[in-house]
Specification:
alpha/beta, binds uridine-5'-diphosphate, 17 strands, 7-stranded mixed sheet, 11 helices
């Protein structure tokens, strides 16, 4: 049919979808409620210092998917960047994720890999099938490391007890019996030389794509052709079943002279410190030189109706509501829900790109076969592992 296509949201998912469909010959209109593209990976030059700032929190592109890596590199030069994180706990700074360096520093020991493995085996709790974040942590690293590095941070980040959270959240972090202090283990990792905004702009820069900034798409609004909705799934239905829970973030920026913390991200593990982490943006671009620096303290809290939603919470209360939204979504025609907000999942950037490429391909094939694409290609409920 090659009819017009409408996309709600000019973030990473929306931009990749728009580009893939435009390249396949569709006319695409992208509606974006904000006054800029790039969603939460938006980056901008700080007016006073010239430092490239990640306005909605730190985003690091990392993937094992060579096709996804090649894809993003088509739209901008990526420079080598290896993300490292430190964590301040009890007045001392440790490497994060937990590695041989963290273990030896924390316990004042000089264990080698095998001795450290035996030690952690002995000190960790014997929980065969961890049902929640706390059990996962206790069985992985034991109580002392859990309490020092995960408990306070996680309570601040998620606003609930770690035992109420799914184990899957902690499974994002490795435990290493080596001195490898890289945060991510993926083959490909980098930072766009000029930030993410020009990368997204380049994706959207196509004669068949029209972008309407500061123009939210009203769900159910009279649009021609298929709609891809990368906004929040509950917003599509005007929250008729209630509001799905998200954590939002508050950011406090400060300009300082020189180098504030010597690294891009310092986590604050102690529950008594109100922020979860401090980002020092210029360390994301080590190829640039700046005399001044911009630091951002990050605080998480429950997301209200006028806040930016960041992390889907996905607790038991959300599960029942999510099922109702999934049923409502499946009853729609010509709408497909995509991305982090559209499918209410905690997605890394590379997964957003992969899924958007796949959704576009499925849509094109369905269209060629004169079929309609359903509400979901990536179902929200699949990986929803809930605590027992
Ligand atoms: N986490 C923690 N302490 C840390 C780092 C992470 O307790 O120093 C926990 C926390 O619950 C967090 C989760 O591990 O939400 C996943 O961490 P990740 O770095 O993947 O979070 P993101 O950068 O996506 O916010």
């Amino acid at each position: 049919m090659r009819g017009p296509v409408t996309i709600a949201g000019a973030g990473l998912s929306g931009a990749v979808l728009a580009r893939e469909l435009a390249d396949a010959g569709y006319d695409v209109t992208v509606y974006e409620a904000r006054d800029h593209v790039a969603g939460n990976c938006y980056t901008e030059r700080h007016a006073e210092t010239g430092v490239l700032v990640h306005r909605y929190g730190p985003h690091i592109f990392h993937t094992d998917d060579a096709e996804v890596w090649d894809y993003v590199n088509r739209f901008g030069a990526f420079r080598p960047y290896a993300h490292r994180v430190w964590s301040k706990a009890g007045g001392t700074v440790f490497p994060m994720p937990i590695s041989l360096a963290t273990i030896n520093q924390f316990f004042g020991s000089d264990m080698g890999p095998d001795a450290a493995r035996d030690f952690i085996d002995e000190t960790s709790e014997d929980i065969a099938a961890p049902h929640n974040f706390e059990e996962q942590a206790l069985s992985m690293v034991g109580r002392a490391l859990y309490e020092a590095f995960f408990e306070g941070y996680t309570r601040k980040q998620w606003g609930c007890a770690p035992r109420d959270l799914p184990a899957a959240i902690l499974k994002r972090l490795p435990l290493r019996f080596s001195y490898d202090d890289g945060y991510f283990a993926h083959r490909f990792q980098g930072m766009p030389e000029e930030g993410y905004t020009p990368v997204i702009e380049a994706m959207l820069n196509h004669p068949r794509i029209a972008v309407r900034l500061s123009t939210p798409l009203n769900p159910g609004h009279d649009v021609d052709g298929h709609v891809f909705w990368s906004g929040a799934i509950d917003a599509y239905f005007y929250h008729s079943e209630g509001r799905l829970g998200y954590r939002t973030l508050d950011f406090e920026n400060e300009v300082r002279a020189g180098d504030y913390q010597g690294c891009a991200v310092m986590n604050y593990a102690d529950g008594a410190v109100p922020y979860t982490r401090i980002t020092e943006h210029k360390h994301f671009a080590p190829w640039e030189a700046h005399e001044q620096t911009v630091i951002t303290r990050e605080m998480a809290r429950a997301c209200g109706p006028d806040d930016v939603p960041y992390y889907p919470i996905r607790l038991a209360t959300e599960k029942a509501m999510l099922h109702r939204y999934i049923a409502a979504a499946k009853a729609t025609r010509n709408v497909t829900f995509v991305g982090r907000l559209g499918t209410y999942r905690y997605l890394d950037m590379d997964v957003c790109v992969r899924e958007a490429i796949d959704v576009a391909e499925k849509f094109i094939n369905a269209d060629l076969a004169d079929q309609r694409l359903g509400a979901f290609i990536h179902a929200p409920i699949d990986p929803l592992t809930l605590p027992a």
